[in-house]
Amino acid sequence: MSAVSLAGAPVAKALRAGIADNVARLASDGIVPALAVVVATDNESTHWYVRSIAKAADKAGVDCRIIDLGPTASAEQLKSTLSELSEDRQTHGIILQTPLPDGVQADELVPHIDPGKDIDGANPLSLGRLAVGLPAFAPATARAVVELLVHYDVPVEGRHVAIVGRSAVVGKPLLHLLLERNASVTICHSRSRPLEDYTRAADVVVVAAGRPGLVTERHVAPGAVVVDVGTNVLEDGALAGDVDAHSVEQVASALSPVPGGVGTITTALLLLHTSVAARAAVEAKGPLVSSGTVRSIR
Amino acid sequence: MSAVSLAGAPVAKALRAGIADNVARLASDGIVPALAVVVATDNESTHWYVRSIAKAADKAGVDCRIIDLGPTASAEQLKSTLSELSEDRQTHGIILQTPLPDGVQADELVPHIDPGKDIDGANPLSLGRLAVGLPAFAPATARAVVELLVHYDVPVEGRHVAIVGRSAVVGKPLLHLLLERNASVTICHSRSRPLEDYTRAADVVVVAAGRPGLVTERHVAPGAVVVDVGTNVLEDGALAGDVDAHSVEQVASALSPVPGGVGTITTALLLLHTSVAARAAVEAKGPLVSSGTVRSIR
């Protein structure tokens, strides 16, 4: 068997059509969806990534403002920036970009992002709302996995999905997105041994552990679908997933590549979420307000 | 094999010792921990249950105030009551008791419970904080399962736990409590078929599905530990779990009874949480405040 490649590009393209639709509808109300990205680092690759979001936003008709507070920004500065953006009616989506300055904890900052503008699902309230089935934005990477599966007609209802990795940005929110779609879900991690006992029982295996080559053919049941969320930068600068593609593609029926898979979809989702947040704000005839009163934001 | 019975009473007794310790420490600061239970129904069994909490509170040295708004209370009345209690420095724990009046949605009310006083984990922010590992109160029933396992030295680290049921009050928060303890966790539900394929793979099976007799011996691997969270009232008024105890105790190494198991522990946890919330408020020299700034509340 040689696995079908689940490329992200066609998924991103379909999502961009959805963004264009939202942008056009908003234009008829005189609104341009606006994303604010808050940065507080001099890390080169972060700035490269943020500029790539800004370029994609520009192409999509989404206004993108980069608010660079510099690598010495204080927690107080970051908090007040996030609070101001949360209250600003001209801003529809907010991203707090990591890494943060030394000693500044993201945990203290993300509650200041209005859940209605929390388009990368960073506020724990967004995760809690997602978990109980209330409208909320999932982290783009977690939703990207679902969009990939949906695009390629991989069913999850009534099927067994194993997630390797329990992070707050992928594993945990993805678990809730999949439960909502009536999958049975196993969440395993570095303490799950032997890992193959868990992953081989699954119809779909999603790997988001941050360990290059962690999952090999012995971890995958014949015919299973494997989604690789890993984005590991190797010593030579190359990007590698968490899956040993060469061996896994011999047993899996489908496998998402790295690069070119899940990672290709996330920026489109950030912009889609921003356009959805803008539409929700317009339709509610006012700014989205915090906790509990967020209006429909899907 | 005949399964060991995992009775809840000794667990509740141990928890009451913890409450007594907190109550004594608070007394030296002149503080009596105070719980407010908001009720808006004329349902007889709800009132019976709430009185049972009040009696247990009285015995434990916890002040318990029942705020009965009656079965015709409006959402606005309930919201403002919860907001006032959240701001009231004399109140340390808040429970919003269900059922609610017709047309009133709990979803709209629970965000008004300060997470620092949300001692039954009803606010989605509490679940989100729990999920990302921040201090938060879990729903008492979910934590009761963990306390039962800990009390009887049932290890979960590195072991496979299957949870049957995905509710916001048991399955989902329990999943996060177990992940934090390094268990691998499978969450299954009514769409998981055949159910035994999921449950038989597990070292520990927790059943919280609300269907009497759902789990039988064929669902359980020999020697597994089974925790029954079901509390189903049968036609004859008897209380039945989700587990067919007669058959499961032939294969399981341990089984929690119904009645007399998990349900026995929850009231003690509500009071323990209230005493912990009171201590946190005292130690923080002021009221706990909402989202993001909740101080240590474990």
Automatic annotation (TrEMBL), chains A, B:
Annotated ranges, domain Tetrahydrofolate dehydrogenase/cyclohydrolase NAD(P)-binding: 139-279
Record SUPFAM superfamilies: Aminoacid dehydrogenase-like, N-terminal domain, NAD(P)-binding Rossmann-fold domains
Protein name, as recorded: Bifunctional protein FolD
Signal peptide coordinates: none
NADP found in the keyword field: yes
Binding annotation for NADP(+): 165-167, 231
Pfam families linked: THF_DHG_CYH, THF_DHG_CYH_C
Catalyses which reaction(s): (6R)-5,10-methylene-5,6,7,8-tetrahydrofolate + NADP(+) = (6R)-5,10-methenyltetrahydrofolate + NADPH; (6R)-5,10-methenyltetrahydrofolate + H2O = (6R)-10-formyltetrahydrofolate + H(+)
Similarity comment: Belongs to the tetrahydrofolate dehydrogenase/cyclohydrolase family.
